Amino acid sequence: MLAAAALAAGAAVWRQRSGPIHYTGFVEGEERIVRSEVTGRVLEVAFGEGDVVAANAVIARIADEDVQRRLAAKRQQIAVQEADIRRQEEQVRLLESTWKTQLDAQRAELRQAEAGATLAARTLERERALVRSGASTAQLLDEARAGHDQARSLVERARDLVARQEAQERQIAVARRQLEVLRAQRDLAAAELAELEVVAAKYVIRAPAVATTVQTKFLWPGELAQPGSAVLAVLDPTDKYVQIYVPVADMAAVRVGDRVEIELDSAPGRRVPGEVAFLADQATFTPEKIESRSDRMGQVYRAKVRILADVERFQPGTEGDVYLVAGSTGADGTAATATPADARP
Fold this sequence. Notes:
Elements: H1 2-17, E1 22-35, E2 40-45, E3 52-53, E4 58-62, H2 65-133, H3 138-167, H4 169-201, E5 204-206, E6 212-217, E7 224-225, E8 230-247, E9 259-264, E10 271-279, H5 293-297, E11 300-307, E12 319-324
Antiparallel strand pairs: 1-8, 1-12, 2-4, 2-7, 3-6, 4-5, 6-8, 8-11, 9-10, 9-12, 10-11
Helix pairs in contact: 2-3, 2-4
């Protein structure tokens, strides 16, 4: 790598001394490696090397019988839980409506019994007064006393029924808590189902969201995929750049954003516009020992040139020249000047 950088730097310097400032470069593309995220037997790989792949196209399928069984079981579990929830909801509604109706009726009976007991108590008092005055008989007093005792018994019974009915409200509270538990279990199962669906989707491997071209095929049907296994290497036809190495002596003249012209060896005389998109802040090639100015001048910095036109025509690996455009403005807003290398101190 260091030797290649040194050769690139040497070539760049040689070209500068023989004409306008320009650098030898080569076309590269950012390959995207599409990988498996699950373990399974490969059923299909739909594309081969050189094929054009549409955005989000299915490029491979992996056997997913196990996860599909788990999905079916989880969906069945949720269906059962939904049925249990509906039954519990109906039971809660029935308990609430029945309890309220019966409680209202029993409270009305208690009020009626209390009114009857009040009347019986007054009747008993009147009979006692009449007996003392001789206007009534002991038999009528006994009958009044018996009516009073019966009325009190009815009141006690009605109060007991009301208390029992009020106590049944706890059963409704228990039924509501059971309903909440069922709903929580259903929600948990639904969350687990969503996770399984995410996992199941990974058994169908899709291409990136842009159209690409297959560069390398790594897996074939019948092979075992593991998490991280590479399936295809694809390249976005528009995601290419020209890589050059800038000698340290030229660093003052090259800025990110500078306009350039690219001339490929495969199309001599035809220049395509571009711009400097990246400039390394550390030297790519550095001599083992830097003891003199000539040693320092041997350093080069890696740069990327964005292709601004006809990018699809650039094939990775193709070499060519990158020419600085005189008067271009860098990212810092300053004008770049192309000074011949022979004129530099």
